[in-house]
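The data are quoted verbatim here:
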Amino acid sequence: MAVTIVFLGPLRDMAGEGEREVPAPLDWAGLLAAVGPDIAEQLQQERVNVACAGRVLADKTALAAQDGDEVALLPPVSGG
């Protein structure tokens, strides 16, 4: 039973990998522990969003990922 965390944009560079599998279920505290302190610090900023099973969470701290879910970490979009 696992959840896949997908790192996008600069978070991918920070993680050194595109994705990571962690044991399911996964809540907010588990996510912060699984990604390490640098990425956890980024996730706690309002401008970084979290999607679970293809839906962006209005309240990312309510994360409740289950077996087979994909959790995408979405940094702010930039460019023009």
